[in-house]
Amino acid sequence: MMNSKKCLESLIDGLGEHPNIRETIGQLDISGRVSPEQSDSFKLAYDDFLKEMSDEWSVSIRDGEFSEISIDSITNEDVTLVVKKPVGGRVFFATLAGFSSALDDKSLTLSRELLVLGSFTEFKTRGFSVLPWDGIPLPSLPYFDPSPDAIDPRKGIVRDLTGITVPADPYRWILLGDKGSGEPWEIWRSKATRKLATLFVSDVWEEDKTKISLNGARKRTFVLGSECEDNNAYEKVCQVSEWLLVKQDTEARHEVLVRRLSAIVRDSDTNTDWLAVLPEALQEALDGARLDHRAYVRSKSAETVKAMADLRKAVGEDVSRIVERVHRLSTGFVVGLAALATGLGVRLTLLTSQKSTWPAVGIIFCLVVLAITWASITLQRHVSTKSLVNELRNMRRWHKNVHTALTRSDYRELALRPVLDAVRLYKKTAKFTYKGMIYASIIFLASFVLIPLFHSVEKPLETNIESFQTPPPSATGTKSTLEIEDVTQQSGAPTEAADNSTQTDKSGNEKETESADPLEDEQPRPLSE
Fold first, then answer.
1. Which sequence ranges are marked TM in the entry (predicted)?
2. Can you list the alpha helix ranges (DSSP code H) found in 355-416?
3. Residue 505: predicted pLDDT
4. 385: closest CA among 415, 438, 429, 416?
5. Predicted pLDDT of residue 248
6. Mind giving me the DSSP string for 29-60?
7. pTM for this model (two decimals)
8. Distances in whole angstroms, Cα of residue 395 to Cα of each of 144, 316, 390, 427
9. Are 338 and 445 in contact (CB under 8 A)?
């Protein structure tokens, strides 16, 4: 017994030497009498327990008529201490009887810690851990989600007509790690041996006793029994259970194991205790079942795998056609957007040729192109990702059946690694594409912002050059007239001839007069003529 006043065991000690205790998973009822000598210590332990417990706990004191009374009215009275315990991911037990009876409860499937009042060596199973508890009312834990790959042996493996004999959750009975010690360990090991022993039979039913049968070359019937006397039986049963509970082909493993057991047991053992017969025949049956299972897998793999591979190929082609049509649909949508953008670009080009609206129109066209490009990439990425996820999900289902003949190492190297490498390449490519498009969009947008600046700087310079190279018409005409007069005076020609030639030039084409050199049109006559 513990001496801590915060411990539940102190309350139990205060109700006499042999209190009557009834315990379930969620409630503990302790009936007894509080003597005057223990009254004060019981009150202190009760107050300390109230201070330590959380809202999930509750404690009350009842009299002989089960009416609630105060702590001051317990002396020399037959009282019942009612403690309501939390039930969840952590479950509490104050007695070994309560722990033993609760091990069959279905709610423990979602629990991960069982705390038992007392001192012993803890142990862990594939379902939960069994830990010693000092009686302090600790808070509970939330329920844990069950594993989706868990196997229920009652579905397609063992036909249990009783509904409760074969465990629905066999993993809680398989030890994980080192053995424990103490009474909780012995109670659990005895129950685990009996529970796991029902996994290696064909049928379970109830008559005057619980019976099982093996459907082999000849049907053998046994009485299940209540307890196994062989101390090493659990290790053998646990080893065979781990070999049997493989989700990929549990039914095939179970069939070859049952046939081996049916052939090994003696005729004289029929209708005897199954828990006494099983330990002697189990190891030999396991060795033979492993050989039978390998031969079964090899014989099955030839035609079955070929047929399933052909079926997978046909299904893959059908899926590829559908995905290709989806890609065409998305591509057609993008092409339509590109056509609309082209028309918009033509319209914006006409606007820029009429007005000086290049910056605003260019930015609008830039944003439209970016929006269409990003819509195209996002749509294609969505379609490709969804297609890849669906393909991987279907491939996972196919791999379980198509690659049955491969060992685990060969399966990883030949079937799984190429797929994983392809998925990594897809993720890396998608990541680089996304980053590249961000950089390209920034450069594209920056170019449209900078081009109008260069355009506005170069336009005044071109205007000045054109005005410098092309003189006004009036200046051109005046210059030509002065040149003609100078040439005429130097050659000694009469002024009238110069005037006549000038008038003739004016009556001709004005454009030719402005663009041509007058010295080329009319040559001055020599003085001899």
1. 329-350, 356-377, 436-454
2. 358-402, 408-410
3. 46
4. 429
5. 76
6. EEEEEB-HHHHHHHHHHHHHHHHH--TT-EEE
7. 0.57
8. 29, 9, 8, 18
9. no
